[in-house]
Amino acid sequence: MQTIEAGFPNSVHNAQQCFRQILKALSEPGSQVTLEHHLGFAPLNAAASQVIMSLCDQQTALYLSAALAKNAEQPIEQALHNLAFHNGLSPAPINQADFVVVDAQEELDLSQLKAGTDSSPEQSATVLIQTNSLRTGPVFQLSGPGIKHKLDLQLGDLSTNIVDYLLKPSHRFPLGLDFMFCHQQSLVAISRTTKLELR
Question: Which of 6, 57, 84, 135 is the most interior residue, by most CB within 10 Å?
């Protein structure tokens, strides 16, 4: 039986606080921020849940991968049920979604996601990746807008497809995907303008 769980304690204020932290992460790729206003709608973790609650509404098409629930007690439908109640969200196929939430070790064809168009590059998908750590895994070196000096970053255990896309995106700029890596309450964003290399 699906149950309704509480959202933000103070919906407007908490969403605004999260929004500011998310903007900081997006404007400073590779920097880590903490979202601490909600424990998350399992099997989504706290960071992924708060990003969706802060940025998405009834106009947002959302895809939650079933792989997120592979080792969880709650099915993915439970998270969808709560997000539909609190934010009016509706599920969408992965190739039509504005926000896509997947497991870090999932093998995905990221080229099928919305990457925007030449006239509207902003109409692309934001990919939230639930990862097992932000301190283990391959060491990436980041450079680009919002990064003063080259930055080393680990994003946990990632599938080959995700690593390959990060190193060599299949979409040409200004088209492409923006990523948010979520671990517990921690969030790291990587913009499509960020260049990644393996150390």
Answer: 84
Residue 185 makes CB contacts below 8 A (sequence gap 6+) with 34, 35, 36, 45, 46, 47
Phi/psi-derived region of residue 116, left when phi > 0, alpha when psi is between -120 and 50, beta in every other case:
left
Element (H, E) at 166: helix 160-167
* Span 157-178, pLDDT tens digits: 999 999 999 999 988 889 999 9
Torsion 99-4-71-21 (CA) sign: positive
**For residue 84, which of 63, 102, 57, 103 has the smallest C-alpha distance?**
57
pTM above 0.90, yes or no: yes
- For the stretch 119-134, pLDDT in tens is 999 999 999 999 999 9
DSSP state of 69: G
